């Protein structure tokens, strides 16, 4: 319903383009868990350690839509590194089933391949921190990105954290809501108790409060998980129960789809505004059609791009930025900047 | 073989007798379920206020009940026949991904996607039935294996084909009207499909000879076989029906929300069993009714949605559900004892 027919062919093209790009990047590494450096010569990276700057990036699976954008940033920054005689190697796990230990192994593998700098996300501190500490002990510059925050970076002795902060992102969303006139915002949390989703809702609440409104959380029990109807009906019920609610924010794009339906069923479309964390095709289309107020983007491309640039600048010229953490988000996508966001999505960057 | 034990007569099927006394009523398997449904409705009518009793409030639990019910009725039949089906969660996810990939991503006519998704349900259900009847492995294990296997297959294929785990779908007006529209802006069309399923399956179970077979298979498989009932055929048909029900709901959700996600549906695994058990069906088989399952489904959805109308913190919803399940099963036990032991003694005396 939210898909405009005119947009569909263009979207199909964009998806194909992204796929082609990812396949192109992947073509050099049939089986191993380490991907090739961006110039397509895997061995070069290891051997270049003594002379050039061999930067190793640990990331998610490159067929993950989020990580394909991060990798796009890594690849683009790698062009500069290569021009300066260095190399960039992207290492990702085959699956997410055993993420912590797998990521720790990738960190160790980067060190043993002679990394001059290591960039990695602190997804599972319990499993990964020991490996990260070995990096620092060897005197190899370490950057934490995407997950962990500046706290993890400081604890591990990393140079910086590059990524978004859930609380800050929430606060930006809450303030945006407040500026658009929302006074009572409902934060729908389908994964209550998880630290990142709680931080998002806490940020929303503080952001709305700063502009004179209030926000409360709607925790959804796990018996609703993966059932958009139950989520939509729960949101509808809350809107019917409390007709002062004029804003709904969701923690994921799927929940935003459910919320859009719930708002419509409560016949509250012209009063209740919708916002969400994260970004996908249906969010972009709804914002474009005026059915959704905003989406909060953590700009994964910049996480890859800035991390590699920072590592290269430090290795080559000792450059360091005073901004710690270096936040890549939140960027609030609304009708004011939707066209450039759609263009970016078509290019596989956002 | 040495089937020397005296074949107990198959448990009598529960037909609707005319002119019931209170004693008769208390002995019917759905009486406990009916009391449960009425109690939770009154409870939430008192604490949920006017909005719970409004058309929108009724739509809240009816919409959730309809989708759950389309799965719970065939699952209930299967449980009456003494088997479990845990694979419905993955069947739902894979059928909704199938329709989204075939018709959304590949752009085939939506009817092709729907037929493919429903066929997939039939095939998986048939395989479940075949594996259970041919290998003798308990259905709990077989369908648990299908639950995991199929979810992995869905995730893997979705990534290979589309590169993402969430696929958008533009179903077009006809499919939308038939499967995914909201009547009067509130009531899902699924409610009518649910009613159709209640009527057809209710007639099959309680008024056709085939229904007798289901009770006989669940009551005592050996004696059912010796009386000439095609036990394997009945079971395969029932497994196929429950997977088909899940596939129907998968298609409905994809068309209603214009998208499909691989993580959808897992909550239906336990929710369908909960609804069936609250509805008075014995976990060991041989006892239950379609009306009971319908009441159990209603009870479950009134509780899971009613909580949002009370304005209480929905953190407690799962606790209330847990207490309710226990209470319902204890109450069902009481009524079942009356139905199975008390009535025959009366007949002997009279």
Automatic annotation (TrEMBL), chain A:
> Carries keyword Methyltransferase?
no
Natural source organism: Kribbella antiqua
> Any idea which UniProt keywords this protein has?
Signal, Sugar transport, Transport
Q: Would I find Protein biosynthesis among this entry's keywords?
A: no
Q: Which residues form the signal peptide?
A: 1-27
The record, for InterPro entries, names: Peripla_BP_I (IPR028082), SBP_2_dom (IPR025997)
Q: What is this protein called?
A: Simple sugar transport system substrate-binding protein
> Family, per the entry?
Belongs to the bacterial solute-binding protein 2 family.
GO MF annotations in UniProt: carbohydrate binding
Q: Which Pfam families match?
A: Peripla_BP_4
Per the record, GO CC terms?
Answer: cell envelope
From TrEMBL, chain B:
Keywords from UniProt, A to Z, are: Cell inner membrane, Cell membrane, Membrane, Sugar transport, Transmembrane, Transmembrane helix, Transport
GO CC terms in record: plasma membrane
What is one Pfam family matched by this protein?
BPD_transp_2
Give the chief site where it resides.
membrane
From the UniProt record, which GO molecular function terms apply?
transmembrane transporter activity
Query: Membrane-crossing residues?
Result: 33-53, 59-81, 112-133, 140-161, 191-215, 236-257, 263-283, 290-310, 316-335
Q: How does it sit in the membrane?
A: Multi-pass membrane protein
Q: Where in the cell is it found?
A: Cell membrane
Q: What functional role does this protein have?
A: Part of the binding-protein-dependent transport system for D-xylose. Probably responsible for the translocation of the substrate across the membrane.
Query: Which protein, by its recorded name, is this?
Result: Xylose transport system permease protein XylH
Lineage of the source organism?
Bacteria, Bacillati, Actinomycetota, Actinomycetes, Propionibacteriales
